[in-house]
Amino acid sequence: MEQVNVLIIGSGPAGYTAAIYAARAGMKPVLYTGGQPGGQLTITTDVENYPGYPEGIMGPEMMEDFRKQAERFGTQIRYGVVTQVDFSARPHRVIVDDQATLLAETVIISTGASAKWLGLESETRLNGRGVSACAVCDGFFFRGQEVAIVGAGDTACEEASYLANICSKVYMIVRKEEMRASLIMQQRVKNNPKIEILWNTETLEILGDQEVTGVKILNNKTQKISEISISGFFVAIGHQPNTEIFKEYITMDASGYIKTIPGTTKTNVEGVFACGDAQDNVYRQAVTAAGTGCMAALDAERFLAATGNH
User: What is the pTM of this model?
Assistant: First the structure.
């Protein structure tokens, strides 16, 4: 049975950064990419807010840079999905693709979170061509234009307010006649002259061939179908952390985000660390994920040193 010092589960900015730090520290990390090598950024087109890329960079290209840097220092990058874990004793037991079993002195969880989508064919087809699940990441590309956002929680209100600062008009599509958002956030969008809330409204289809040109909507009360011209369509109906396989051992919040000891990446299990969007439901940015990846590698290194394994 293979034994490893540091096992990294997931390959977004957090996982690759953890790998870079762990490899440079001589910890011989093994990283499993998961089902989406490179994480959410591989379905992102232009990334303009990551430091060090003054001209911007395509998401997949940026993740390729991260991967090469991790490999350069000796990270073993493997394609595979961790399907089961046993954190009841150290070394930790991890099963990949329901077949191979590894024993790991330390485990860094960087499995990320996946945006929830409406499930429309047009949404998938136009993803990255005007459809986005991150207003902070992509709102800039729609300066001075009209956009729509779907959602009724605090995140949707926050992103609608953010978009209203840079776009000429924001349509907020809300399925019911009330919002889930906190009162203060509701007031913020209701009082913003640039935001028009469409109550009792569902999205039927996002319009456009090569890029978003509009959206077809249905008013649930009147059953009236109408179309709005927009150039950007944002989905803000929540994220789902990819943490299901750890729930038997790791403490999480009600939504499934891993709880870490404040100021660290330590979980409730000794030798298991969590970084990136799997434990961050607030910022969810590539640069913050990379920062926590660095922290996780340093925490793992200190843990191994303290237990005499490094």
Answer: 0.83
